[in-house]
Prior knowledge:
The protein is α/β, with parallel strands linked by helices.
Amino acid sequence: xxxxxxxxxxxxxxxxxxxxxxxxxxxxxxxxxxxxxxxxxxxxxxxxxxxxxxxxxxxxxxxxxxxxxxxxxxxxxxxxxxxxxxxxxxxxxxxxxxxxxxxxxxxxxxxxxxxxxxxxxxxxxxxxxxxxxxxxxxxxxxxxxxxxxxxxxxxxxxxxxxxxxxxxxxxxxxxxxxxxxxxxxxxxxxxxxxxxxxxxxxxxxxxxxxxxxxxxxxxxxxxxxxxxxxxxxxxxxxxxxxxxxxxxxxxxxxxxxxxxxxxxxxxxxxxxxxxxxxxxxxxxxxxxxxxxxxxxxxxxxxxxxxxxxxxxxxxxxxxxxxxxxxxxxxxxxxxxxxxxxxxxxxxxxxxxxxxxxxxxxxxxxxxxxxxxxxxxxxxxxxxxxxxxxxxxxxxxxxxxxxxxxxxxxxxxxxxxxxxxxxxxxxxxxxxxxxxxxxxxxxxxxxxxxxxxxxxx
Length: 456
């Protein structure tokens, strides 16, 4: 096939689909439409303390008792096998298998009194943790009428600059059990698929990592892409005024699609091979460590929200019903320690931590009593989360649990409270009204309170 015939394969419609996300039911121009629509929905009167957010979601339920809220004075069947070590925050200890994070605690806001009344199924708890809403069911995947994820809300209400992606989720579409449906809480729900995340599902730890959804088709060089863009613009100008008006929004989305596909900022963000080997090593040469490094690069490229889900399915990683201590010691805690501590260090050194919120969240904690399989089971009555940077108060421990880590003893906090507080830091009022595709109103997080003690 000669060059001319190869070029002719790409029609105007096909160019609109370049970099499309057909496998997830959304095209790149649809994704970009969110930025144009959001211009009419910018929230005023609430000054953001953070410009961007990275959510490290420890999917499956990380053990608070073996990480952030250890109970060395309790019986062995509660305290477990690990020893607490001192941290950079005076009087606060963390697990011995988090030595690098121990040196970041002076920068952290640690909340030890999380709890929710949602049942202990992963789906319901993940949904509550990410949206602040209780769907009230025992399980089930994402639904069209779900409340939207924070990334989707931000994509609508706080638009990003041209040439950047507003909301990205990686490295998995976490399932509700192996082979099950997609977990709720990551999508736009009632706001419509336009505001769903851009999914990055290739392993950034592989030598040939690239994001296929942002690549130009084979046989279409960059200079020809620009030439075709100019040609389409001149053709549109030759149409009648009424036709031009009706095509106006499509042309805007097409223009933004071109911007992304040809943007150095967007393309370079995914080029992890530009990072020094020592930096990549510090994050950990595994899918999670390199995904966290990629999240930092995406924030630098002006992405507003990156959500990193730490599991291919809910039972795969932090859901430690069996061999809890072995899994934490040999795999989960070292990987998390390397990735999260490197992220915080990098953001601080680059002057980004002050305006970037990092939220370490989970669906619930683990049971105080160790079970017969040397594991801990689901526990929604008390658990811990952590916020760093982005206007969160550094060097603060908020709330406390009882002697066995079973229930909060003071200052209880719900997922809705945390999600509302995250929105506050990002310049969105939690009682703002959103509208679904049928123009029905919904409050962002209605039954919640902002925890002002956590804010600078």
